Amino acid sequence: MEGLQYMAKKVIVITGPTGVGKTTVAKYLEQQWHMARVITHTTRTPRAHETDGRDYYFETSTSFNRNHYLESVVYAGAQYGSSLEGLDCAWQKSEVVTIVLDTAGAITYAQELADKVIILYISVSDSNVLRQRLAKRGDHPEQQQHRLQSAEYLRDLALPPELVGRATLINNDNWHTTKKILQEFLILCGIMDLN
């Protein structure tokens, strides 16, 4: 964890529309800067490459309701939520952790955890890129279409007014450039230094 100077517990909330690269950003911060990811819960079916307890806690509707959530939403017909226990578990691994949330979840985190929250809003210049990325990650065509027509997807295409002035905007058109911007962001926030 050389190069990181941790402050009091923080959570970097990564938000934006589906397919924009939020999970890629979270995995990069985990691998490159050893930030634990808060594992969230969902009732959706796992994709072929996903593992329970690593990508999500895959739940039934019954088991989903047994957890204690800071926030939860229904997105494209499936329940999603982040539990207080999951957040505490991540903070036991590192004092700066990441979580991927939709914009409604990001607003809740900002309201509930105040100065413990740093928000990144990830976007791309062309929304057609999002359709292409969804197709590449293996979602069934009907699921893709349902997701792209959902109110949640349309909501997440723009930074909500509640996060204006609070979120740092990062365009993820080019991954190489995004990594440089993330490093500058971490330095600016005082999470890492160049020493």
TrEMBL record:
Reactions catalysed according to its record: GMP + ATP = GDP + ADP
Record-listed E.C. numbers: 2.7.4.8
EC primary class: transferase
Alphabetic keyword roster: Kinase, Transferase
Start and end residues of each Guanylate kinase-like domain: 9-187
Kinase found in the keyword field: yes
Pfam families, A to Z: Guanylate_kin
Superkingdom assignment: Bacteria
GO molecular function: GMP kinase activity
Annotated family: Belongs to the guanylate kinase family.
Record-linked PANTHER family: GUANYLATE KINASE, GUANYLATE KINASE-RELATED
Role summary: Essential for recycling GMP and indirectly, cGMP.
Protein's name in the database: Guanylate kinase
Organism: Convivina praedatoris
